[in-house]
Each structure stands twice: as structure tokens, then as C-alpha cells.
Amino acid sequence: MQNELNVKIVGILNLTPDSFFDGGRFNSVDLAVKQVEQMLTDGADIIDIGGESTRPNYTPISIKEEIERIEPVIKAIRQKFPTSYLSIDTYKAPVAKVALELGVNMVNDIWGLKFDIDLASIIAKYGMPCVLGHNNKTALPEDNFIAHLKNDLTKSIDIALAAGIKKNKIILDPGIGFGQKSLTQNIACITQIPSLKQLGYPIYIGASNKSFIGLILNAEKQDRLYGTLSANLIAVANGAEYIRVHDVKAHKDMLAVASKLKVES
User: Fold this and answer.
1) I need a surface site. Which of 6, 44, 236, 257 has the fewest CB within 10 A?
2) In the 8-state DSSP scheme, what is residue 241?
3) Contact at 8 Å (CB) between 3 and 213?
4) For the chain, how many structural domains are there in total?
């Protein structure tokens, strides 16, 4: 089944004991590699590797510990799946540098280059794509939320361009579940994708099994797959080019059917 919508499925690989959805399931090299094999078989285009949980109220870990988690796994994945496309989910420059040296193809920064001032120059040096996520220590206003969100994302874009990251290497993530966003704001991150695309960059959506879906459905994390599929289908219909998911096979099937049913403009 082919995905004719040109949407990239990003499979999530959490190497953490405390991630909100699958903490502890893949925090060994063997388990991680087995999960990567399954996601690639199921149709993942990109594997996003995270060594630190960034769930609400997470406990930050040291750079050393984060590197110790990701390094052996990246080496093992690269050895077994040399042509796989890998992303590192980190906001720390030293972690990204190690990952890029090991052959990772993309950096996914939930802080949009605003946390570590050195990260942008490292990404530019290696010439790799980057996902600039929206995050904030305080909540954005409900009034004119999308305008405020676009303003914050523009600041991240400016940091990237000033560091020498090429425009065609930048991808924007509105940061669903980050920055103390309300239910209404998280929903707007999907329904207002056409407005976000006015900034001129591809849109990356990370909605998988998140709490806003649980609030809509009154469902615990293990019962949010159908809600996640609905959210990502609307995101794709609204123009998202990347969807970051835990359940690759279900989303591969969703995109295969959606591509046959899409309305030609």
C-alpha cells in the first residue's frame, strides 16, 4: 500500500524509563533495535530517537546520561539498518553533535533552538534538517493564539537562519502538548495548519496519544489510538507533511486509504 500524499511517518523510539506512553519498553539496545525493525517493516519513513522524556513535569537528565542512552542504540541501528533515516529528539547541543557524528539525519528540538544557544550552529555545520518545535515556559494567550504561536515560531526560524541553517532544512512543529497549551490551543495547532503554513515551511505534527485526545474522549493513554488517527487524518488533510506516531502500521493504513479518497483541487 503506497502513501500518495507525500506525508512522512515518523516512528517514535523512546529510550527512557519514564516517557508518558511507552516508558521502559525500549530502554535496552536489543529491545530498541527490535522496535526499529518493526516500525520500518510497518512503514516508518523516519525513526525519532529520544534519550530524555519530555512529558509534562519530566525530570531533566544530564548530557552525559542522555548520550549514554542514545549512543549504543544509534550505533546498533546504523549497523543493522544502514540506510534508515534517523532523527534525534534533543534540545542539547552536545547530544545532537554526538548523534550527528554517528550518522543521524535530522535534529528534532522541542524548544525551537531557544534552549541551547549552540545547537543551531551545530545543525548548520552538519547541514542536516531540523524540526523547530514550539515550547514556552508560560502559556500563550487564548486571544489571537495562532498569531502568538506564529510569532514564536518566527523567532526560532530567525535563530536558525542566522546560524546558517538553510531555509529548505527547516520544519515547523506547533508543539502540541508543550508550553502549557490548553485543549483549545492544542486543537488549533491542527485546525489552523493552513495559517501556520503561511510561514513558508513544512509542518510536523506530534499528536500521538497525547492528553488533549484523552480529554476529548475521556480516555486513558492506552485507549487513544482511534483519536490519534482522527487527529492525524485532519492534520494531513490540513496540510501537515510529517506525523510523529507510536502506532506506525495503523497510520500507514490510514494514509493509504486517505490517498485514494482525497479530493483533487
Assistant:
1) 6
2) S
3) no
4) 1
Q: What's the confidence (pLDDT) of residue 2?
A: 47
Instruction: State how far the Cα of 196 lies from the Cα of 242, in Å rounded to an integer.
Output: 14
Q: How many angstroms separate the CA atoms of 197 and 172, rounded?
A: 9
Domain with 238, as residue range(s), is: 8-261
**Cα distance between residue 110 and residue 107, in whole Å:** 10
Residues linked to residue 46 through DSSP beta bridges, in sequence order: 10
51 burial level (CB within 10 Å; 0-12, 13-18, 19+): buried
Q: What is the pLDDT of residues 40-84, one digit of tens each?
A: 999 999 999 999 987 666 678 899 999 999 999 999 999 999 999
| Higher per-residue pLDDT: 181 or 261 | 181
Q: pTM for this structure?
A: 0.93
Would 45 be classed as within a structural domain? yes
CATH number at residue 187: 3.20.20.20
Residue 3 lies in a domain: no
Positions annotated as catalytic residues are 210, 244
- Whether 209 is in a domain gets the answer yes
**Looking at this protein, which amino acid is placed at residue 227?**
G
Per-residue pLDDT of 113-159, as tens digits, reads 999 999 999 999 999 999 999 999 999 999 999 999 999 999 999 99
Position 79 in a domain? yes
Q: How far apart are CA 234 and CA 7, in angstroms?
A: 13
CA 221 to chain centre: 18
